[in-house]
Design goal:
Number of helices: 3
Largest sheet: 6 strands, antiparallel, barrel
Number of strands: 6
Strand content: 35-45%
Shape: globular
Strand order of the largest sheet: 1-2-3-6-5-4
């Protein structure tokens, strides 16, 4: 990776606030399923615990499902970006309207500043 690409990725990461988030979720890869912990989440991605027996390479398309409440579910199609012994770093793909609405609300509640949320939404739209 060139220095310019590294700086670009670093700037991209700073545009989206990562929210510490300790929740159980289901990770799916094809027909396989694992229970994982969501460690943090943003409008652009999610950091998951690395489940035993999980073997996929960066670039794999996965699905993360998490119940926020008895009737509120996040369904996040993600692409695996980073794998290490403890964590899986994933970038969000095309999220359905209900899930992006719930994710937006989650970020909004944790940021506590509407202007920060609007800035992040602008960056998300610009990145598309």
């Amino acid at each position: 990776m060139s220095q310019q690409e590294g700086q670009s990725q670093s700037q991209e990461r700073r545009r989206f606030t990562r929210i510490a988030f300790d929740a159980e979720a289901e990770l799916r890869h094809g027909d396989q399923r694992w229970m994982v912990e969501i460690k943090d989440i943003s409008l652009k991605g999610v950091l998951l615990s690395h489940p035993a027996g999980f073997e996929a390479q960066a670039g794999a398309e996965l699905m993360v499902e998490c119940w926020l409440d008895s009737d509120v579910q996040l369904v996040l199609p993600v692409v695996l970006k980073r794998v290490d012994a403890e964590y899986l770093g994933c970038a969000c793909g095309a999220i359905d309207l209900d899930s992006i609405t719930h994710l937006r609300r989650l970020v909004e509640l944790n940021l506590g500043d509407d202007s920060l949320l609007e800035r992040e939404l602008d960056h998300l739209i610009a990145a598309q």
